[in-house]
Backbone:
């Protein structure tokens, strides 16, 4: 029989083990999925690091708090002037997002390969602001030169407002005098909020700040814009850093900041003019219609884009004649990537301006060793040559082939040997490899990955090529996301994939809001 003390110890041990097991169970359940979120931002992953221009603090604080509550992804915000943050980023190269007071800082960050994607959020205008009762009676830019005036400016090297103040006053021919006055009778501050606070408490008589900043201070009054030139309307822009190890979460926050029902609404309430972004969706979906020839060049890029953005790209590959018929019948893709410009022209009015993305040569493919001794288009009319071509009504390749043969005066003779017409060139290549056909007219891109089994005969004609244009629909639900897809297709990584697929990439990544 066990002693009462031993029985008590055993009982206590059972209770302790039970409590520990319960705690472990609760912790494992809470760690599996953050409250109110999708599991993308588990506490063990740590917070996203977000560098933000100090002047944009009020709306960003509110949006980030809502985002964390909704997704469970924690954020660590660091505020300073746009220029100061950029300088720090160049050294540290650590973090996930960078929000600048104007897009010129994002452009510089891109040039330094610090930023991958960028989304515009709102507009800002530099204005002259004074205390609400305007005791000095300031009315114009020229009044900044008043002899007894205490002037507050942003530091041009640290803050976006300082940079734009200097540029605007240089255009007006007033910068040197205003700068001298500020140094003699005023102050330079590293952030726009510090300039606004100085006006509020009376440390300075007048300051140059953002219009949205002034609207957040009931004690201040806007006298006039610093410049009427629309070039000085700045875009508040958020960029996803190239060094981010959690780009998908960072892009999700960037999309949240720009969505009209999320960040856009908060920015508007805070006195900003929001730039309309894509509607909020945790996993947005876009539809891409593409000529079949493009598949080998873009599939890896599309998969990488989906993984990074946390989105889905539904792709439909087919002959461009078939795709154009679908579009004319009412299909509305978010983007259309044609095999040739001739098949974009037919539906261009439904899309924004197209970008000629790539080109590939039209060639004659023959069996290994070229057993029929084909040297050019004319040889395809030789007796006994079994030829395959693409259908001219269903595909861009077929239409281009017919045009090429007609221009060479060979259409009737060559087509007498035609044994197969298909909507896509892949079917022709397969028939050639099985020996059903002796020669096929296809794109070089169609055979780039099977050259160990086939030979190429070049066509000596200036029109023996096709140019592939990409266009974003005028009706797309996600214009910014779809333009970022275009940018991804133009990237250095995509260029390497194109070169290995029998294409030549014609364009570089576009700048601006399509980023």
Residues:
């Amino acid at each position: 029989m066990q002693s009462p003390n031993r029985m008590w110890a055993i009982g206590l041990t059972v209770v302790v083990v039970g409590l520990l097991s319960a705690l472990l169970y609760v912790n494992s359940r809470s760690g599996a999925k953050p409250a109110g979120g999708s599991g993308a931002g588990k506490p063990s992953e740590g917070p996203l690091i977000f560098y933000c221009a100090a002047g944009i603090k009020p709306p960003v604080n509110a949006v980030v708090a809502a985002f964390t509550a909704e997704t469970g992804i924690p954020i660590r915000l660091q505020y300073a002037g746009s220029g100061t943050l950029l300088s720090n980023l160049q050294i540290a190269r650590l973090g996930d997002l960078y929000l600048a007071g104007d897009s010129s800082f994002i452009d510089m960050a891109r040039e330094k390969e610090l930023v991958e994607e960028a989304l515009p959020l709102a507009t800002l205008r530099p204005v002259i602001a004074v205390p609400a009762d305007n005791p000095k009676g300031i009315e114009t830019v020229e009044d900044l030169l008043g002899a007894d005036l205490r002037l507050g400016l942003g530091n041009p090297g640290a803050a976006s407002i300082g940079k734009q103040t200097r540029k605007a006053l240089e255009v007006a021919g007033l910068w040197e005098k205003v700068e001298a006055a500020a140094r003699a009778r005023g102050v330079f501050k590293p952030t726009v909020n510090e300039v606004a606070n100085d006006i509020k408490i009376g440390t300075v008589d007048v300051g140059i700040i953002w219009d949205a900043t002034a609207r957040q201070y009931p004690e201040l009054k806007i006298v006039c814009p610093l410049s009427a030139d629309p070039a000085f309307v700045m875009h508040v822009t958020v960029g996803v850093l190239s060094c981010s190890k959690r780009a998908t979460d960072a892009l999700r926050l960037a999309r949240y900041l720009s969505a009209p029902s999320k960040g856009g609404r908060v920015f508007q309430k805070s006195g900003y003019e929001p730039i309309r972004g894509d509607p909020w969706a945790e996993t947005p979906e876009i539809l891409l219609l593409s000529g079949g020839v493009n598949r080998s060049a873009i599939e890896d890029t599309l998969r990488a884009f989906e993984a990074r953005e946390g989105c889905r790209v539904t792709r439909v590959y087919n002959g461009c004649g078939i795709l154009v018929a679908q579009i004319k019948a009412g299909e509305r893709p978010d983007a259309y990537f044609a095999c040739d410009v001739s098949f974009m022209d037919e539906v261009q009015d439904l899309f924004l301006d197209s970008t000629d993305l790539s080109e590939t040569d039209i060639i004659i493919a023959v069996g290994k060793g070229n057993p029929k001794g084909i040297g050019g288009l004319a040889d395809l009319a030789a007796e006994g040559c079994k030829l395959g071509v693409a259908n001219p009504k269903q595909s861009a390749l077929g239409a281009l082939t017919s045009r090429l043969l007609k221009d060479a005066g060979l259409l009737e003779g060559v087509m007498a040997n035609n044994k197969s017409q298909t909507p896509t060139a892949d079917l022709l290549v397969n028939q050639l490899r099985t020996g059903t056909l002796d020669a096929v007219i296809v794109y070089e891109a169609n055979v780039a990955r099977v050259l160990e089994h086939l030979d190429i005969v070049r066509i000596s004609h200036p029109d023996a090529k096709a140019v592939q244009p990409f266009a974003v629909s005028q009706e797309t639900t996600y214009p910014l996301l779809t333009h970022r897809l275009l940018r991804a297709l133009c990237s250095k990584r995509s260029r390497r994939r194109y070169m290995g697929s029998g294409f030549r990439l014609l364009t570089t990544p576009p700048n601006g809001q399509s980023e």
Remarks:
- The CA atoms of residues 484 and 515 lie 5 Å apart.
